[in-house]
Design goal:
38% of the residues lie in helices and 26% in strands. With 301 residues, the protein is of the alpha/beta class. The strands form three sheets. It has a six-stranded mixed sheet, sandwiched between helices. The chain binds adenosine-5'-triphosphate (ATP). Adenosine-5'-triphosphate is lined by residues 11, 16, 34, 36-42, 186. Belongs to the ABC transporter superfamily.
Length: 301
């Protein structure tokens, strides 16, 4: 488990991470989602002892990363896949990691197989790797010590859809075996595909957190009336039941579950053409709303 408690990091007068608290639970894949510059990398760098917090703390299975004698055996870290030594082959990079952690050389081939890099690819210099291959190699470096916890900054960056599915299955298996995974992304879709729990950060502050299912449910219901002129009537009925609605794409998005929206429409005598959970579209809308005030695009608007 990773526990982040009231973490703050200031650079001069600028607060990059502002009183952030969350946990990444054992057996779960936790997605850390936020627009560029939200504070994800800073938080993760603090986790693994590369940046000192101004205040607050992070513990990984109850301890400070800096106290770990051989941290690679406890926490697998990928912070920047493009920061690998370009002149070395993938195999050499893993061999150095294995040696540093005091692991048998046989781990190199095992780990290469685990991340789907072929013998041929492992023999190429990293400067000739695609971004996706670098990500696989970075994940291999994180996994080689067989840790219980993974901290991965933008690990899906550069992966094609099949690569993202592969990563989902790998991380799912890791979590199912009792591991803890925290991964960051600025892309909602990646997190939606891969994570069980989601922590959303904007301008250094946590703006939402919960299980993916909860956040999807919180994204509400999409409803369209059979007769478009009845939409206002339905909106009024929903408002009377204290349900907030937003016009969307020829219909309404209501902050309530489909059952309540359906019952309200029935009571108001409004026939419906469509009634469903807003699902991914709703989560995307929520992400844009939550981060609109904090993202550059929002500031420009
Ligand atoms: N060493 C530093 N000195 C000054 N400001 C910094 C430093 N490191 C980070 N920042 C600032 O802190 C903020 C958060 O940066 P961070 O890299 O944590 O964001 P991020 O969420 O990882 O973004 P991205 O998705 O773009 O990587 C940014 O405004 C960044 O410019």
């Amino acid at each position: 488990m990773i526990s982040v408690e009231h973490l703050t990091r200031q650079y001069g007068r600028f607060t990059a991470v502002d009183n952030v608290s969350f946990t990444a639970a054992t057996g779960r894949v936790t997605g850390f989602l936020g627009p560029n510059g939200a504070g994800k990398s800073t938080t993760m760098r603090i986790m693994v002892g590369l940046t000192r917090p101004t205040s607050g703390r992070v513990t990984i299975t109850g301890r400070d990363y800096r106290e770990m004698v051989n941290p690679g055996l406890e926490v697998g870290v990928l912070l920047d896949a493009s920061a690998q030594h370009a002149g070395r082959t993938g195999r050499e990079i893993l061999a150095v990691a294995a040696q540093t952690m005091g692991l048998p050389r046989s781990r190199v081939a095992e780990t290469l197989a685990r991340v789907g890099l072929t013998e041929d690819e492992a023999g190429r210099r990293v400067r000739n790797y695609s971004l996706g291959m670098r990500q696989r190699l970075g994940i291999a470096t994180a996994l080689i010590g067989d840790p219980q916890v993974l901290v991965l900054d933008e690990p899906a960056n550069g992966l094609d859809p099949a690569g993202i599915r592969w990563m989902r299955d790998l991380l799912r298996g890791f979590a199912d075996d009792g591991g803890t995974v925290l991964l960051s992304s600025h892309l909602l879709h990646e997190i939606e595909v891969i994570a069980d729990d989601i922590v959303v950060i904007g301008q250094g502050r946590i703006v939402a957190q919960g299980s993916k299912a909860e956040l999807l449910a919180a994204a509400g219901t999409l409803v369209r009336t059979a007769d478009p002129s009845q939409q206002d009537r339905l909106a009024r009925a929903l408002h009377e039941s204290a349900v907030v609605t937003t016009p969307i794409d020829g219909g309404l998005r209501a902050d309530a579950d489909p059952e309540l929206v359906g019952e309200t429409a029935h009571r108001a005598g409004v026939a419906l053409r469509e009634l469903r959970a807003a699902d991914g579209a709703g989560l995307e809308e929520m992400f844009l709303e939550l981060t609109a005030q904090t993202s550059r695009e929002g500031a420009a608007a």
